[in-house]
Backbone:
């Protein structure tokens, strides 16, 4: 792990899916099951390209890739049904180290918020079912801003809610789209990859790329002692 531009911080902003909770694998499975049921030739590269994107952007991507709007809409709707069913019926696993990291934040009274591309209704379900809701006073969802990730709106709104300037925020993200959103907001970003590694150009701009949340916490602990 290499740390670029080390300095302290005043707030931490957390992505949700793939960073705090292991829902990206549920989403990938939902896409695969939907494609199989509809006999649509969805490839792994398509699923990888949609990691971190809000559903409207996924639909736009599928229309372009499949070249058939009706087919793309059917696939999106079927996948959404599969995903919602999984969220309600299956256990939603936490990512290793997230509870320890959030307990540490709580102990030190570090300002924090969630910034997610997920719609509010689903975000509330996920945070409640995993027990993570108690750690956050503020959650900004993808359907509550004009532009979702990779645009910076979600994180800018989260910083505004906390009353912290963007340059004093550190974002924790797993996806390239989320990291782009943080960088566009003039925030530093720690990337903890989930299903795929970030592109080299994004990784170079990150504060660090950590192998897990335990490593990310060690980095944050070291940064707290530095001047802003």
Residues:
């Amino acid at each position: 792990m290499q740390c670029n531009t080390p300095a302290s911080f005043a707030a931490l902003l957390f992505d949700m899916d793939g960073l705090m909770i292991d829902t990206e694998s549920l989403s990938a499975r939902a896409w695969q099951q939907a494609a199989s049921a509809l006999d649509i030739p969805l490839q792994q590269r398509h699923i990888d390209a949609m990691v971190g994107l809000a559903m409207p952007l996924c639909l736009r991507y599928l229309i372009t890739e499949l070249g058939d709007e009706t087919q793309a809409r059917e696939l999106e709707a079927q996948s959404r049904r599969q995903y919602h069913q999984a969220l309600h019926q299956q256990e939603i696993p936490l990512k290793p180290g997230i509870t320890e990291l959030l307990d540490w934040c709580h102990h030190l009274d570090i300002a924090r918020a969630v910034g997610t591309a997920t719609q509010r209704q689903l975000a509330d379900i996920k945070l409640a079912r995993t027990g993570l809701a108690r750690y956050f006073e503020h959650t900004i969802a993808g359907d509550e801003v004009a532009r979702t990730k990779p645009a910076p709106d979600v994180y800018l709104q989260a910083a505004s809610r906390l009353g912290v300037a963007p340059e004093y925020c550190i974002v924790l993200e797993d996806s390239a789209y989320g990291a782009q959103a943080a960088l566009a907001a003039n925030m530093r970003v720690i990337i903890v990859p989930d299903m795929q590694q970030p592109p080299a150009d994004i990784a170079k701009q990150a504060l660090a790329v950590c192998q897990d949340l335990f490593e990310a916490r060690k980095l944050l602990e070291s940064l707290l002692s530095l001047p802003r």
